[in-house]
Amino acid sequence: MMGWRCSCVIIVTLMMLLPFIVSSGSIVNNLPGFDGQLPFNLQTGYIGVGEGQKVKIFYYFVESQRNPLIDPILLWLVGGPGCSGLSAFFFENGPLVMDGDYNENLPKLKLNPYGWTHMLNMIYIDMPVGTGFSYSETQEGYYSSDTLWVDHAYSFLQKWFIDHSNFSSNPFYIGGGSYSGITTGPLVQKVYEGYKERHMPHINIKGYVLASPAVDTYQYYNTRVLYAYHMSLIPKELYESLEENCKGDYVNIDPDNTKCVSDYEAYYELVHYINEQNILEPVCMTTPAVNQVIQQPVQDDQELQCRSYYHILVNTWANDENVRKALHIREGTKGDFLRCNKTLGYTKNLPSVVDYYHNLTNANIQALIYSSDLDMVVPQMGTQEWIRSFNMSIHDKWRAWFVEGQVAGYTKIYKMKEDHYLTYVTVKGAGHVAQTFKPKEVYNMIKRWFSFSLI
After folding, report:
1. Does residue 173 carry a pLDDT above 70?
2. Helix pair angle (236-246, 217-230), 10° resolution
3. Which keywords does this chain's UniProt record carry (predicted)?
């Protein structure tokens, strides 16, 4: 009798939860531009957050192609702020990449041999509101900030794990690149505190991953001058003069300090035409005229010469009516899709989150932070500086790491507490962010790190 009564309770409970379990997502079997059925499980959907749940956050969930009910889940945040999850899905670590070739005026899609979904469950979200396909039911809801991003992301995760309770025991990680470094630290801390206090739903947080992270706005802007000197973009004499006249501060320049102003103008003139994303690649213009050219079918003997031109293609693809139907986009909720929406009503109210990452060195989590040596947007020396400020003990000294017998970069491992470590990695020959430029190398790095962090 007791067993029968318990079974009834379980059945009633599941029936009560059923509307929530199936409410947010829709299965995507096919995508325009890809031949045949998708060889991986893709789900898209909206989750309401904020006051009255009137902010609707759009997400893409790709199950691991290995063992989804056991493999880790990685929530991947894209920077900007205002860059869609589709940007990472196609150009960073997703299961598909976008080809320059067209199929009936749409770019062709092909499998990414270095997609992280070979070993991870990946969640991509259009965050903050107004990004990608995320929208608000009210005009007021479109105003956002760093702190609201964190609050909305936490609310999103709570509801996502209620909807996907079969993944509640999977190891969970939060990651992101570029500007999302500002929001990742506070979000990890919020999720970890909920984990320690046994909040429901259970989110089994195990660590975080950062790629070329903006963590301190002043610092990453300021270290660009030092980076330019180290990479021989400016001469030693100018760098020494800048140091003397500007006192090492290239952000808050006093307009009355004529020597500093003059030196900084000389510096700016030398680096102004450098591609900060990757100092070895050309600067490419993305004017309306260029956009029009790129949105025409590419001939077999042509090749898109600039990486940013491929970014334009995702706008063409995502604005196609058939694509929106395939992704289950709600009609009338979004006008033109932009890979990166630069018109957000967004307030940057967390200028530095170094303290959050310092606090996390006392948590029972693993950390991976990696930089690119050709990245001038968030120079690696700035990232190394704030990591060193934590005064952690060294577990593994600076050394080379290899892929297929070649040096792929350098790494150093710090001990945080007990068996938890912060791994810092540089990726040789990469730009902002590394997996866009060196997908094979970063794929191998990620695979090794997750194998290590789950021990």
Report:
1. yes
2. 150
3. Signal
